[in-house]
Amino acid sequence: MTSPHGTTGAVVIDGKASAARVREEVARDVAALVAETGQRPGLATVLIGADPASEVYVRNKRTACRAAGMEDLHRYLPADVSQEVAEKVLDELAADDFVSGILLQLPLPEHLDRRALLDRIPAEKDVDGLTVQSAGLLALGRDGLRPCTPAGVLRLLDDHAIPLRGAEVVVVGRSELVGRPLAQLLTARDATVTLCHSRTADLAATCRRADVVVAAAGVPRLIGADAVRPGSVVIDVGIHREAGGLCGDVDFGPVAERAGHISPVPGGVGPMTIAMLLANTALAARRQFGG
Amino acid sequence: MTSPHGTTGAVVIDGKASAARVREEVARDVAALVAETGQRPGLATVLIGADPASEVYVRNKRTACRAAGMEDLHRYLPADVSQEVAEKVLDELAADDFVSGILLQLPLPEHLDRRALLDRIPAEKDVDGLTVQSAGLLALGRDGLRPCTPAGVLRLLDDHAIPLRGAEVVVVGRSELVGRPLAQLLTARDATVTLCHSRTADLAATCRRADVVVAAAGVPRLIGADAVRPGSVVIDVGIHREAGGLCGDVDFGPVAERAGHISPVPGGVGPMTIAMLLANTALAARRQFGG
């Protein structure tokens, strides 16, 4: 098959297209919710300080939120805000009926206790899926809001009709944000999941066993062609800024020659994260309004 | 090597001996805590109804608790207790400074909402490690009380100096009680973990890759000799009552011929569960008393 990149080899998974579909679905859902209940979902993004990358991310989230027809209930706090005041703001948002979802933009200024702040966010408004309560609901297979990036990976796989039931999936990287929750989501979808990390004895050999490899280790081009079985599916969660531009955890060129499907960087998993944040906010609102 | 069972083959892992060591450690820790703080740990076992197996389990837990020098703060509730009253009893125990740990014996009578009751137990007294909060703390790698059976499996492996760092471990069975939390505990110990289940395509082939296989599927003799690489470690969490006596998820005789280590049923993982419950209660008390 000829891929959009022009090489013989893998189908290149189009994250922008999938993300656009999710956003359209959310916009329709939001419109229906407003029609049914007279209430409009609201997303409170909380930005503390002036980290330039965080400013860009939050701006993109707010724009996407408004484009989906949701209220943009942004809160900015200065870099020197005290833990106490930051907690009070989160408590206020937790109690506010106009707020369906709360997103605390990370990283935080160093003097703040990240975990203590995250844990002020009630599970039903935790649209990033990062609190202890949300992690516990996922671990126990109960209803809850799932972390956005792992949820985006699943959606990409589903949009390309990749079978997961009984499939061998290798997840590379055991982070709280991606690897660990993704392994659990995939297990719940009946995949046989192996979770690899920096201590894994033979990473390439382990990955070669897989029908699907998800690279989320945070190491540029960690996954080479020797780690990929011909025809398998490779999803790249990594994103690294280098002299030549952006790259992922996968060595795209050689891997695309062997894989059956591959997600590029940029334009693969990246666009899904905000899309799934919107989907989580709409879901939280539906439960909140009883719609 | 000649095993205690007299066959050439595996070293048979002695769960009774490991459990006895854990109990002795707990008894020493409790004595030290009483000496340091003047307070004595207390375990509240809550038994609802008259399930004969549950009565035996609770009696054994209470006996072990007293033998370790802890207060036995047992509560019995009749089988027809209302959800409301059961929740009130748990709330009372949660607020009681004499109670270090709360164990709600499962299964419950059918009219009761198990999850709603478990979630009344605060994480710091959740000595069974089964609440959403405890599951979330485990998933995020934060301090907390871990489920007893998975913790017992780890202790057995440690007592036999089985290396976990970089080891390939296959866990068979994805239950909330054992398989899922055990996979996470093993990942935290730097093992490369594969979590298998009823949808796994080729269970025997997957298990043969492992340095350590933990069978926790709840299927008698599921793991045969064809699933075991010579010299590997096999831990059996299953327990099934059959005409000929007890058996596990592992076909003991043939597997013992190939494995390097094997845990028997009974006398393997079983005795560890109560021992780890005591260890959790002592740990909860130490945090409670600030000792």
Secondary structure elements and pairings:
The structure is a homodimer of 291-residue chains.
Chain A (H helix, E strand, L loop, with lengths): L10 E2 L2 H23 L4 E7 L3 H16 L3 E2 L2 E3 L5 H13 L5 E4 L9 H5 L13 H8 L8 H12 L8 E5 L6 H10 L3 E5 L6 H6 L3 E4 L17 E4 L3 E3 L2 E3 L4 H7 L2 E2 L7 H20 L2
- Assembly category: homodimer
What summary fits the major beta sheet of chain A?
Answer: 6 strands, parallel
Quickly give the CATH architecture of the largest domain in chain A.
Answer: 3-Layer(aba) Sandwich
Q: Please report the two chains with the greatest interface, counting residues with C-beta closer than 8 angstroms to the partner's C-beta.
A: A-B, 35 and 35 residues
Rg from alpha-carbon coordinates of chain A: 19 Å
The top level CATH class name of the largest domain in chain A: Alpha Beta
Please list the strands of the largest sheet of chain A in the order they lie side by side: 1-12-9-8-6-7
Organism (chains A, B): Pseudonocardia halophobica
Catalytic activity (chains A, B): (6R)-5,10-methylene-5,6,7,8-tetrahydrofolate + NADP(+) = (6R)-5,10-methenyltetrahydrofolate + NADPH; (6R)-5,10-methenyltetrahydrofolate + H2O = (6R)-10-formyltetrahydrofolate + H(+)
EC number (chains A, B): 1.5.1.5, 3.5.4.9
GO biological process, one term (chains A, B): methionine biosynthetic process
